[in-house]
TrEMBL record:
The keyword Transmembrane applies. The chain crosses the membrane at residues 6-29. Keywords: Membrane, Transmembrane, Transmembrane helix. This is Secreted protein.
Length: 252
């Protein structure tokens, strides 16, 4: 074997080794990223999850509003990426405790009984005005002593929460997407889909509650979302009996 042939063989071998090492490194990084995502969502391979949504008012069959369908699609993609499975249930048919299956609950407490129960049990520092009569505070959020009013199509708020009751490694989280309007539910799910890696790095697998503001949804839909604050402590702290909102957040 002359020098030229030997150099060619060595080059091919080196290229093969380099390609193999590159493939192994990419596979390792992909698997590590997947495991982190699965841990954040509580969705190991072949896990079962629950999607809880409002039941439409058109009849006894399960029907879902358009923006809630879009929200479910956002969540379904995340679940599929984790190699897990999802079951869709209307809010008045979901009867299970916490921690057995990862739950994604979509919709405000006025139309979602399951959401109302979660807010009452898990977030005692949150109040949502569900009055049917028109008023400036209709649909407003109160988080601690702060009030956040809604201006439909212009300035709307949503709560995005990841909550765990049991801190054991096998406990599954509950994700809440509680918006003041239908489009803000979708905005909250889209925010989670786009930012779950950053949220996982910041919060790990701990509970958190974020207040989001959806800006000018009549022009931008659910895409322009601002993080107002991490309100975990205020949302999880019981409100005093006579607590009144200190401020009303409303653009002029």
């Amino acid at each position: 074997m002359n020098d030229d042939v030997r150099n060619i063989v060595l080059g091919v071998v080196a290229a093969g080794i380099s390609a193999t090492l590159g493939w192994l490194a990419r596979t390792y990084l992909w698997k590590r990223r997947l495991r982190r995502k699965q841990a954040f969502f509580g969705l190991p391979d072949n896990a079962e999850s629950l999607l809880v949504v409002n039941r439409g008012a058109g009849g006894p069959e399960l029907s879902v509003m358009r923006y809630d369908v879009f929200a479910l699609l956002e969540l379904a993609a995340l679940i599929k990426d984790c190699n897990a499975h999802a079951q869709i249930l209307p809010h008045d048919a979901a009867r299970q405790g916490f921690g057995e299956r990862t739950e994604f609950c979509v919709g405000g407490p006025a139309s979602n009984r399951r959401m109302a129960a979660h807010l009452s049990s898990l977030l005692p520092g949150v109040r949502v005005n569900v009055d049917a009569e028109p008023s400036p505070d209709r649909g407003a959020f109160q988080v601690g002593t702060e009030r956040y009013r809604v201006q439909p199509g212009k300035e709307e708020y949503a709560l995005l929460a990841r909550l765990t009751v049991d801190q054991s490694p096998n406990a599954r989280p509950v994700f809440l997407f509680c918006g003041q309007t239908a489009i803000t539910n979708q905005a909250a799910t889209r925010y989670l889909a786009r930012n779950h890696e950053r949220l996982a790095r910041k919060h790990g697998n701990s509970s958190f509650v974020l207040l989001l503001k959806v800006v000018n949804s009549q022009a931008y839909g659910p895409d322009v979302v601002e993080l107002v604050a991490d309100v975990t402590r205020a949302a999880q702290t019981e409100l005093p009996a006579a607590a009144t909102p200190r401020n009303s957040h409303r653009s002029s």
